[in-house]
Amino acid sequence: MMLRAALLSVLFCSVNNYVIQDFLEKTEESSGNSIDDDDFSVSTLLEKANQNAGKVPGDPLVLYGDIAVPSGLQNADPCTQRGCLWPKASDGNVYVPYRIGSEFSRRERNTIVQGLRSFALSTCIRFTPLNRQQDFVDIRSLSGCFSFVGRRGRNQTVSLSRQGCVFHQIIQHELLHALGFDHEQTRSDRDQHVRILLQNVIRGMEFNFRIIQTNNLNTPYDYNSVMHYSRFAFTRNNQPTIIPIPDTNVAIGRATEMSPTDILRVNRLYRCRRRGMEG
Ligand SMILES: [Zn+2]
C-alpha cells in the first residue's frame, strides 16, 4: 500500500534551511491556530519531508507518519513484545552509540550532533560515536524523516533527509522514537484531551490517529510535546484533524524542542537519577 499519496508538495527541496529555521523562530510566537500557523510545526515538516518515505527500494516500511516498522509486524508494538530500552551502564547513564552518514554537510552534521547532545543536558541519555558496539542508531539522509520505535538491535536507521529534516525539533523527535516513545496524540488517554476528526483526515491516513496502550509514566498529557502532531496534521480539506478539549483554543503540536514533560518522560523511562531530574 502506498501510504504517502497526496500530501502537500514542494517547498523544501528549493528553500534554504536557514530561511526555514529563521521562519520557524519568527512564527514560534504566533498564538493563532490557523492552518498557516501550522506550516512549520513538527508534523507539517514531517508530512512535507515524508512524501516519498518508504517508497524507495531498500528503505524500511514507514507507517504512522514517520515511524518505521519491521515488515510483517505492522500491528504489533515492538517495544511491548520484546523490550526495546537501551541498556543502562553501571554509571547510571544510558549510552546510545550513533553513526552519522557521510552524505551530510559539515553544518548539517553539527546540527545533528547538537541535537544528540541536547539529551545529555537534561537526561541520562548519552549519544556517543559508534565504537564497535553491536546496537546503534545509523543516522542517514534517506527519503524523509523517520525512525523505528525503541532499540531494535544491530544498526537501526534514523532517517533525517537533508531535504527538510535537519532541524533541531525533528532530530529530537526522531531520536525520542528511537528511545521508545510514540506520538503524544496516540497515547492511551488521549481521548480525554483531544478530539480526533477522522472525517477531515486524508483517506488512508486514519491509522495515524489510532490509540496505543502506552505507558504514560504518570506524566500529564502534553499539547506542547515535541511528539505531538499539530491541529491540521494529515488534513485533506484544510479543516482541523486534532482539536484540544475542553479548551479548543489551546495551541497544540508547535514545540520547537523537547518540552519539560518530554524530558521528564525520558528520565522516568530510563530511571535517570541525577540531581533534580525527577523534580
Ligand atoms: Zn514521529
Automatic annotation (TrEMBL):
GO molecular function, one term: metalloendopeptidase activity
Signal sequence extent: 1-17
Keywords, in A-Z order: Hydrolase, Metal-binding, Metalloprotease, Protease, Signal, Zinc
Residues involved in Zn(2+) binding: 173, 177, 183
Cofactor field: Zn(2+)
Organism (species): Xyrichtys novacula (Pearly razorfish)
Pfam families documented for this protein: Astacin (PF01400)
Residue numbers annotated as active site: 174
Domain Peptidase M12A: 75-273
UniProt remark on cofactor binding: Binds 1 zinc ion per subunit.
Top-level lineage group: Eukaryota
Gene3D superfamilies: Collagenase (Catalytic Domain)
E.C. numbers: 3.4.24.-
Gene Ontology biological process terms in this record: proteolysis
Name of the molecule in the record: Metalloendopeptidase
